[in-house]
Description:
By secondary structure, the chain is an alpha/beta fold. It contains 8 helices and 7 strands, in the order E-H-E-H-H-E-H-H-E-E-E-H-H-H-E. It is globular. It starts with a strand and ends with a strand. The model has no long low-confidence stretch (mean pLDDT about 90).
Amino acid sequence: MKIIIIHYRYYEASGPERYLFNVSKLLKENGHKVIPFSLDFKQNKKSKYSKHFPQPVVDQFHVSQQSNISAKNKLKIIKNSFYNMEVYNNLDNLIKLEKPDIAYILQYGNKLSTSIFDACTVNNIPTVLRLSDFNLLCSKNIFYRDNKICTKCIEGKFSSVKHKCVHDSYMQSFVYYLTQKYNEFRKFEKQIDAIIAP
């Protein structure tokens, strides 16, 4: 079976990436072909598929660099958070080229955007989403704030803005809130065929 694995980065940074490389190895050992799709960061592991990885606007995952991002790039990051056409086009091209049987989606968030689901749907590729956190329900992903459990986002997602849950920033929390509402409006979850929830 050909399996395209989608995750926003292709280098080992934390648990989700360790899982990405471990599950890829396991699938290959069991005779499957694994096709990664990610953003093209400098730190990425080498892959023959990296020519299909879209360029990130900036290395936006290192908070220390946030102040160095130009206004133009900040706007582009916000636009891409809602819908990233470059991600859609590159994934669509890779799917057409490789013709995978299934897409296994790990973490995508505002980095890749829900455009990945559209690219899979248009090409009739079933999607399996692995939920390793509470990203679909909680802006902070972990239902934890101010050293205690917090589930206010279940009652209303705007709570994340009031409490600056995304990087302790009203602006970033508001953008994240808007993208969540946009994705709810798009009903992208109907494009998910199965969910793995460890």
